[in-house]
Amino acid sequence: MNLNKVFVLGRLTADPQLRSTAGGAQVASFSVATNRVWNDASGAKKEAVEFHNIVIWGRQAEVASRFLTKGSLVLIEGRLQTRDWEGKDGQKRRTTEIICERMQLGPRPAAKNSGDGFAPKAGDKKSDSGESAQSLPTVNIEDADNLPPEEIKEEDLPF
C-alpha cells in the first residue's frame, strides 16, 4: 500500500497568482511558510522556516485567489508532486510542489476602524498594522469542485 498525503498549516508569503490553462481550467499557485521551533542542547530556543509551493485547481483556485492574501492563515491538504522541465538556458530543472486537494481558510483579520465586529469583505485589503485576528469559523472548501457556481454567493460566506 502507498500513501502520498501532506498537511500544511501556515501563512501565505504572497498573494495567490490565478491563471487559466489553454483548456480554460483555473489554476492558482502560492507559497506557504511554516515555522519549526525547538530547544538546542544548551537550552537556547531555535527556529527554522520552511517554504512550501502550493498548486490548486478549479473552483478552489478561484476561492483561494479571492479570499487569500499575503499573511493569511491556511490549512492545505494534498499530495506531493515533482515536476521536471528544461529552463530557457537549457538546464534541467526540478521542483516539488503540494497539489492541493482540500483547503481550509483561517480567520480573517478584524476590520480596521469598524465597530461592528465583522471581518472585512472579500474586496477589502488587509491591514498591515498587525491587528489581532478575530476568531471566526473556518470555511472548509472540501467539495468546492462539485458545487454549481450559482450556489456560492458572497453574502452567504461567513467572512
Largest sheet data: 5 strands, mixed, barrel
The helix tally amounts to 1
Radius of gyration: 18 Å
- The CATH class name reads Mainly Beta
Strand order of the largest sheet: 1-3-4-6-5
Please identify which CATH superfamily we are dealing with: Nucleic acid-binding proteins
Q: Distance between the terminal alpha carbons, to the nearest Å? A: 40 Å
CATH architecture: Beta Barrel
Helix content estimate: under 10%
> What coarse outline follows from CA principal-axis ratios?
globular
How many strand units?
7
The share of residues in extended strands comes to: 35-45%
Mean pLDDT: 78
Number of domains: 1
Q: Structural class given helices, strands, pairing?
A: mainly beta
Low-confidence blocks of residues? 113-141, 143-150
Short description, anyone?
The protein is mainly β and about 160 residues long. The protein contains one helix and seven strands; from the N terminus they run E-E-E-E-H-E-E-E. A five-stranded mixed barrel has the order 1-3-4-6-5.
